Structures are given as C-alpha cells and as structure tokens.
From TrEMBL, chain A:
Keywords: Antibiotic resistance, Cell membrane, Membrane, Transmembrane, Transmembrane helix, Transport. Pfam families: ABC2_membrane (PF01061). The keyword Transmembrane applies. It comes from Micromonospora mirobrigensis. It is a multi-pass membrane protein. One of its GO terms (cellular component) is ATP-binding cassette (ABC) transporter complex. One of its GO terms (biological process) is response to antibiotic. The keyword Coiled coil does not apply. The chain crosses the membrane at residues 44-62, 74-97, 117-145, 157-178, 190-209, 255-274. This is Transport permease protein. It comes from the Bacteria.
From TrEMBL, chain B:
SMART domains: AAA. This is ABC-2 type transport system ATP-binding protein. One of its GO terms (cellular component) is plasma membrane. It comes from the Bacteria.
Length: 282, 281
C-alpha cells in the first residue's frame, strides 16, 4: 500500500483523495440516512407497520358504506396514506432530529467541511424513499385484503403525485422546524406525537370529515393533513363524492394553495430556528 | 498575522449570563506545536477550545485560527481543521468502517479510511456496529473522524478519557506520529502525565484566565524550585529540609550518619504539585 504525503497537485490518483461533488455528497448522505433508518427496527416497525395495522383494525370494525356508494375502507385508506406520509416525514424527523442533536451527531457534522444543505438533502432523500416504499406497501395490502380500487386514469395518478409531493414537503419542513422545540432527546416524541394524533382525529383520518363538528373542521382546515386527505380523496373516491366535501367539491386548487403555504411557513421556520447544537452547548 | 502561528488569541472573553467563563485569554500556538490546555472542570477549557473550533461565538477579543476568524471562516477552513469533541456523537446503527468512510467523503484530501481505522487500533472492530464499542473504543473512533481529513490543526478535547493505560500509551504514540508529520495539536486534558509526555508547552487555565504558559518542565519555575531532602533520625523521627544545594546536604548527612542515611529521599515539585498550587489548592 502506498502512503501519500500531502500531494502538491490536488486530486490526482492518490488513494485517499476524492473531492466529491455536492450532488454526490447529497446522495451519499441520503444513502447513509436510509441505512440508519432501515437498521433501526423501531423506526421501521413504527413507520411502515403503523398504517397497515390501523387499516386492519378499522377495516374490520367498520365495513359498511358511508354514502354515495363509497366503502368506508376506500375512504379510510386515503386518510391512512396521508397519515403514513406525515409519519414518515413530520413524526420521523421531529422525533429523530432531537435525538441526533442531543447525541452530538449534528455538532459533529458541523465540524466537517460538509455543506449544511447536504445534511438536509440527506434527510429529504430518506423521507422520500421511505415514503414511497411505505405507501406502496400500504396500497398493496389494501388492494389484496380490502379490494381497494386504484386510480384509473393518468390524471388521478398525477394528482396523487403532486398532492403527495407537496404534502411530504410541507410535513418534512415542519418536522425539521418542530425538532428545535424539543430540549432533549427524549422530548421529541412528547412534542410531536400529540400534535400528530390530534391532527389525525380532526382531519378526517379516522372519521368521515364531514361528520365532525363544524368548529373542528375549521381548525383542521388550518393544517396540512386535512388538505392532504382531501386531495387523496379526489384520487381514490369517485368524482361524484366531491359534492359531499365541505366545499362542495374536492377543491384541488385550494389543496395546492394551503400545502404550498405550509411549505413556505415550514421553510421560514427551519431557516430561522434550526439549531445544530443543544441549548446547553451555548 | 505571523505565518508561523497556527492560533493567535488576544483578549478573548465569553460570558454565559453572569458567569464569566473566559475572562481575557491571550494565547499563541505555533505551527507544528503540541499545546496542552490544563485546568479543572469549569475553568473555561472547553469554552475556549470551542470558540477556536468555530462552535461558539465570543463576546470580545481577536481570534485567528489558521489565518481565519473561526466565527466566519474561509471556505476551505473546515477541511484544514480536525476536531475531536468531548462528547461523542454516535452513529449507533452504522459500523466503524462505514462511519469513517462516510466522513472521508467530506474532505478534499482525505486519508485512506482503512488506514485510519488501523491507526487508531480499531481494525478488529471495523465491521462492528458502533454501539457495540466500549467507551475507549468509541473515543478512538472520534479520533479517527478527527484525523480522517488530514488536518493541519487538530483539536482534541479530553481525548483519552475512558482509555485503559495501554490504550493511552498507544494514543500518545499516535499523537507523536501526527506531530512528527507536522500537524499542530491542541489538546485539553485532566491528566498531568499526558500533558507532560506529549506537550511542547502547557497552558494552565483557571477561573477563565491563563495562569501560566510554559514547557512542562519549566511550569511554575519548577526547574529552579528548592529540592526537598527527607531522612530519618536514628530514633526513627522523620526530618526534612528544603535546599538549593541538595547534593551538599546529602554529603553532609552521609558524613553525620557515617554511611547510609536511613529513609533518604530527594524530591523536587512534580508537575502535579505545581499545577495544584497554580489553580489555588
């Protein structure tokens, strides 16, 4: 093996010398994040398994229709896809980032020449990859066990795509932002879990949204999950069901607008409040 | 700024609320030097070092590290500085080899990851998940991540905490190797023997101030200190005297006792004696 001294000419073929481009750095970071996620059993079970378990339970309890000839399972699955996307992004990051911050993992990254955005890109790549896998698994289960009808037209798949992308983006940014509220490793879950749970109850995940009290609907309409669910109902429920929505249609324009607004809010919060070290680190 | 200086600090101050953690520190560290910062807990060691590393903002003072202000460093500054923090940032789910290889990708002129793992004595653990490592082994991984970028300047904050004696000796060898290759090294430590055996110069910090900076054998004018000669009288009573000329005193005692002097010892203050006196014990 050759031992290189500090080379006069940079890069060259020295065994250790590898100046990676930013894109390559981001991809490596994403791969590392995915590896860490898949190797931590609790994350995998919680994130991937939770929506499927919920579907099994709810589909077994409520097997009727909810009007308009729509099966409850078909309705419920749209809510579970949205919840799954929120779990992968918002909860996953809101719980794990405080742990990494507390352990000093973030501080260690800050001590290297890695550009800051590469770390965020790694998280986003992880969220997107796990989100796709989790959603595919959920759809496969729902099709096999509950005769879920997959979207029939290209247009609906496109809607599925942009609603998911906007929703995951908003939830990812909010997850990173809320991670700064947790003071210690353990409090991340205490901060994030109640928020997620309340949103699930008031946003029409477990219940038909229009059955909820009006004031509850109005509160839910301020947050992204309600709009993710509504956008996904436009994908998985018949066109005619739109008339039963609170606004008299699926309001896809408004879905896009509210989710985009949350992306902006989340981004601003991230940029202004994100901390690489804990408070006691000064 | 003098090009021969790796670090130059003037009038550094930092307070946390009412607590003045660093109360006006002036410090120069030369290129290629091994500099040890000694001091009790809470003396301001870590605060000082973390300001130099660019982690903390200072309240006042001028700081230059490798020609840059660590508060707003030049673009390539981070790739020239290696950092071993006091707390370990763990990657529980990854193996030693994976972590070191990953971090090597951040540096433009990184060392070979396998070689670095071997250098810190973790070859046998290269494929082990980091959460299976002992405290001392985790510390070695920290050191591996600190040197993977082949830094010009390496900061080590209490690097050998949790090491067994053998591991410490091996670590000292590693530091001497790095120093011999021209790396400037700044370490904080609680261990006086560590400072004495590694450092070209030692700075003693107490109450946020640098009390003294000197080579370890000259600290507190140790080399000029009076020697203490102790012996026992024929009745068995311990006696001792301080002397600037201990050899003469021993000769005199030998004459008085007509040969062997019972219980004879001649000592000078150890680094520990000098150090404890400096920090106010």
């Amino acid at each position: 093996m050759t031992t290189t001294t500090k080379p006069a000419a940079p890069v060259a073929a020295a065994p250790g010398a590898r100046r990676l481009g930013s894109g390559a750095l981001a991809l490596r970071q994403g791969r590392l994040e995915i590896t860490q996620f898949l190797r931590s059993r609790e994350s995998v079970v919680f994130t991937m398994g939770f929506p499927i378990i919920m579907i099994l339970i709810f589909a077994s309890i409520f097997d009727g229709t909810i009007g308009g000839g729509v099966k409850f399972t078909q309705y419920f699955i749209t809510g579970m896809i949205a919840t799954g996307l929120m779990t992968v992004s918002f909860q996953n990051l809101g719980i794990w980032i405080p742990i990494e911050r507390d352990r000093g993992v973030l501080k260690r990254y800050r001590g290297t020449p890695m550009p800051k955005w590469v770390w965020f890109a790694g998280k986003v790549i992880m969220v997107v990859a796990i989100g796709i896998a989790e959603t595919a698994l959920l759809l496969a289960f729902a099709v096999l066990l509950f005769d879920l009808d997959l979207p029939a037209t290209v247009g609906k798949w496109v809607t599925f795509g942009w609603v998911s992308v906007l929703g995951v983006t908003a939830c990812t940014l909010c997850g990173i932002a809320i991670s700064s509220l947790a003071r210690t490793a353990r409090s991340g879950s205490a901060v994030v879990t109640p928020v997620a749970l309340v949103l699930q109850f008031i946003s029409g995940v477990f219940f038909v949204f229009t059955d909820l009290p009006a004031w509850m609907q109005q509160i839910a309409a301020l947050f992204p999950l309600k709009w993710m669910c509504q956008g996904l109902r436009a994908v998985f429920l018949p066109e005619s069901f739109g008339a039963r929505e609170p606004g008299g249609s699926f309001e896809l324009g408004r879905v896009a607008l509210v989710l985009a607004l949350w992306c902006v809010v989340g981004l601003v919060l991230c940029l202004t409040t994100f901390r690489w070290t804990t408070k006691r680190d000064g | 700024m003098d090009d021969q200086l790796a670090i130059s600090v003037r009038g550094l101050r930092k307070a946390y609320g009412d607590n003045l953690a660093v109360a006006g520190v002036d410090l120069d560290v030369h290129r290629g030097e091994v500099f040890a910062l000694l001091g009790p807990n809470g003396a301001g060691k870590t605060t000082t070092v973390e300001i130099l590393e660019g982690y903390r903002r200072r309240d006042a003072g001028e700081v230059s590290v490798l020609g840059s202000d660590p508060g707003s460093p030049a673009a390539d500054w981070r790739s020239r500085v290696g950092i071993v923090l006091q707390g370990t940032g763990e990657f529980d789910e990854l193996t030693v080899g994976e972590v070191v290889r990953h971090f090597s990708g951040f540096y433009p002129d990184a060392d070979d990851p396998d070689k670095v793992v071997e250098r810190v004595g973790l070859s046998a653990k290269a494929k082990a998940r980091t959460h299976t490592l002992s405290g001392g082994q985790k510390r070695r991984l920290d050191v591996a991540l600190g040197i993977i970028g082949r830094p010009e300047l390496l900061f080590l904050d209490e690097p050998t905490t949790g090491f067994d004696p053998e591991a410490r000796r091996e670590f000292w060898e590693l530091i001497r190797d790095l120093a011999a290759a021209g790396t400037t090294i700044v370490l904080t430590t609680h261990y006086l023997d560590e400072a004495e055996s590694l450092a070209d110069r030692v700075g003693v910090i107490a109450g946020g101030r640098l009390v003294e900076v000197a080579p370890p054998n000259r600290l507190g004018n140790r080399q000029d200190a009076l020697a203490t000669v102790s012996w026992r009288t024929p009745e068995g009573v311990a006696e001792s005297a301080e002397s600037a000329t201990p050899t003469a005193l021993v000769a005199e005692l030998a004459a008085r006792f007509g040969g062997e002097v019972p219980g004879l010892t001649v000592t000078r203050p150890t680094l520990e004696d000098v150090y404890l006196k400096m920090i106010g014990h």
